[in-house]
């Protein structure tokens, strides 16, 4: 199998897209996390040839449009991630989350037909192994209590993506320390930036 590797600058850093000859995205990672992408490729595509290539125009146009504010531009992109049947079902469900909205792990499990609340853990694991950043919007999954939780490419990127989509209010520049959360030796009236 021939896999095409291409790069594109973005507001969040340089992206590395791995696509096949049909134009389907196999992986999308940030260049500063490319070791993760290469591990994924070796694990799932043992017999492949990777070739540096120009990004397929449809992918470049959709990514640029997304970063320019057309939040639905990524919906039309074809993807073909490798993974277990369960992982692929979670990733397909992630693509149904509209831009500007978030959901939580347990809700995805419920949407997939599971009634056992422990399945949320499995959904979280599948979410964390998503090989296609942004296009498969795992950044739209947060904890039920509203915490952002993790993001393979960094919480700063998850926060930026959610803010870009209008789903997460901007973080305040300053916040006061709650007296019940203060540490010994720190005044409770201190403000941290």
Task: Explain this structure.
With 193 residues, the protein is of the alpha/beta class. The chain folds into two domains: 1-82, Methylated DNA-protein cysteine methyltransferase domain (Double Stranded RNA Binding Domain), CATH 3.30.160; 84-193, Arc Repressor Mutant, subunit A, CATH 1.10.10.10. It has helices at residues 34-44, 57-67, 85-94, 105-111, 119-128, 155-164; strands spanning 2-8, 15-20, 25-30, 49-52, 103-104, 141-142, 175-176, 191-192. A four-stranded mixed beta sheet has the order 3-2-1-4, with helices on one face. Strands 5-6 form a two-stranded parallel ribbon. Helix 4 (105-111) packs across helix 5. Mean pLDDT is 87; it is low at 169-193.
Keywords:
193 residues; alpha/beta; Double Stranded RNA Binding Domain; Arc Repressor Mutant, subunit A; 2 domains; 6 helices; 8 strands; 31% helix; globular; disordered C terminus
